[in-house]
Specification:
Number of helices: 8
Structural class: alpha/beta
Shape: globular
Oligomer: single chain
Number of strands: 10
Distance between the termini: 20 Å
Number of domains: 1
CATH topology: TIM Barrel
Largest sheet: 7 strands, parallel
Radius of gyration: 20 Å
Order of helices and strands: EEEHHEHEHEHEHEHEHE
Length: about 250
């Protein structure tokens, strides 16, 4: 959005024109900015071509998700409703990660039936519930374990998710115990170490500290993870990205 001759415009269309046509309040999204953000993100991480998953909780507009899907992105969901939305938008199940706390048995069953890429778990009880359901269905389920890296994102206290006092993820001791538990399971396949330390992070240093923790944990766990889920929360600082929350 830019001002031109004291008139606020979005992609050269005046907001007054939009308000007159669609009424207020209205939501307006810039496809040009969306495309620029996604391509910039992909370009800066092209050396290892990661799977980029859009956090559906940040915007549940179906048409927007359909456009995002065209760029090859996957989805990070935190509820069955968001998972259904991602599938309806055409995102392939093997590009969908189910994160978040408090998943119900119904949601876990639905995710297993849809054969999504990963279910990121937050506790031992969640692993036990997945194992019970997987055993009933005679399936092996791919999961990730969310580690709490005790890393301060230096952002708003209310949206911090990576410090030890936050409710998200497990500490390193429990993490190692869960890794060993998964090794013995016939119905769970541990594939991912997951972290997420917050949102609107405008400094690269919290990520550096987080990566140092992850490096130590992987070495100590002596386990080969197929995926490392680094979460999101990047603000505009990251490699010149602007207004990005991917």
């Amino acid at each position: 959005m830019k001002y031109f001759k004291n008139k606020l415009k979005i992609e050269n269309v005046g907001v007054h024109t939009l308000a007159k046509k669609f009424g207020t309040p209205s939501y307006c999204y810039s496809y040009r900015q969306l495309k620029s953000n996604i391509n910039s993100f992909k370009k800066n991480f092209s050396s290892f071509d990661p799977l980029i998953c859009f956090a559906v909780k940040s915007n549940t507009n179906l048409n927007l998700i359909k456009e995002i899907k065209k760029f090859g992105l996957g989805a990070d969901v935190v509820s069955m409703g968001e998972l259904m939305l991602a599938l309806k938008a055409g995102i392939k199940p093997k590009k969908i990660v189910f994160s978040g706390v408090g998943k119900t048995s119904e949601e876990i069953k639905f995710a297993i039936d849809k054969k999504i890429l990963l279910i990121n778990v937050e506790s031992q009880s969640e692993i036990e519930e997945i194992e019970k359901i997987a055993k009933q269905k005679n399936k092996k389920v791919d999961i990730g374990i969310r580690l709490n890296p005790n890393t301060d994102a230096k952002t708003l206290r209310q949206i911090s998710t990576g410090k030890k006092e936050n409710k998200f993820g497990v500490n390193d001791k429990i993490f190692f115990d869960l890794v060993n538990q998964c090794k013995k399971s016939k119905n769970i396949n541990l594939k991912c170490l997951s972290v997420h330390i917050g949102s609107q992070i405008l400094d690269h240093r919290p990520y550096e500290r987080m990566l140092q923790v992850i490096d130590r944990i992987i070495y100590k766990a002596n386990y080969k993870f197929e995926f490392i889920d680094l979460g999101g929360g990047h603000g505009h600082f990251l490699y010149g990205l602007k207004n990005t929350e991917l």
